[in-house]
Amino acid sequence: MGASAAAGTGAGTGAGTAAGTGAGTGAGTAAGTGLVADFLPFTWVDGPGNRLVLFMQGCNFDCTACHNPQTIPLASTHARDWSVDDVLAKVRESMPYIRGITVSGGEATLQWPFLVALFTRVKTDPEFAHLTTFIDSNGHATQDVWDALLPVTDGVMLDLKALDDDVHRTFTGQSNELVLASIRSLARAGKLYETRLMLAPGLNDSDETLRATAAWLLAVDPEMRVKINHFHAHGTRSPASGWPEADEATREHYRDVLLDAGVQYLC
Length: 267
Ligand code: SF4
Hints:
The chain is an alpha/beta fold. It has helices spanning 84-94, 112-124, 143-149, 165-172, 177-188, 207-220, 248-260; strands spanning 33-43, 51-56, 80-83, 100-104, 132-137, 155-160, 192-199, 225-230, 265-266.
């Protein structure tokens, strides 16, 4: 998930499949409703311009560094089912202040049928058609899920937790194979708005790792937009709650290395 934080609380009830399975299987909901952990009426950190953000419940990763572990279970007593009309009622209230909608999580693509229904309504209803539709994703979704989503999706912010598969498994509990395939596929389709790198000091931030990651991304798209998401311990579980955070000099160094490696669009 992305830079904004879902404020929902509470442990999941354990219904549905366990986190870590079912890439893009439409977990736990019918297409008519989505299981929503929380929402923000507007924020400027989840895509272009001010946006309403919906945080879906349930994730197929189990990241050590997750700031919102309460959104990982596929069901939660604190999440509730929203219909498309429920979402649009909130959108209507925020309309004077927003340029679009971002669906985050948890992992938004797990509930892809609901996203397709929501975004299709936004695109076809004259009241909402001026709004852009974005997804904030961990990238662990299969091509058929993207094929269903992309016709009604303007852009995707996608997290790359680690280029090295072993490190990725350590961070998330899953291989990065689908993530890398998603980056390639979305870039090819012109729908990859940005790739977000979560950098944790001493774990995935060596110069060598940054250069290799930049080279891989630029081979996919020489004009790839890259965003650094600095690791923050707040809200994470052990052992990540004890990891160090990057100081200002380290953050500057990351930027220098990525720029030197050829990343032109760095935020
Ligand atoms: S992808 Fe990782 S950080 Fe994002 S919601 Fe899922 S477990 Fe948390």
